[in-house]
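Hey,
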Amino acid sequence: MRVLGAAVLAMEFLVMDFALLIAMNKHGALALSLGATLALVILLTAGVMKKMTGWYLGTVWQLCLIAYGAVVPAMYFLGFLFAGLWVSAFLIGRKGEAVRASLLANPPAE
């Protein structure tokens, strides 16, 4: 669960960096500093995915990523795309961890 979530956040960090390059030519310092701060906290959140706090913070950053579409309109699409990946990472990761826990509890006979 945490590996998938951290992977989504790492990809979002890269996308935010490219969005900052796009915003650099058209927007002021406030939009750029907010975008840079968002990129930095997204990257830092990938490091705390072991705890549920990482998932809560990541959900907040998903909403902020969508809101950055006000600066770079393509971020609306990418924000919703990554929000879908975020939900998928949570659901699939939970199922994967449940299977792993059951295998550890009851190892298959060889």
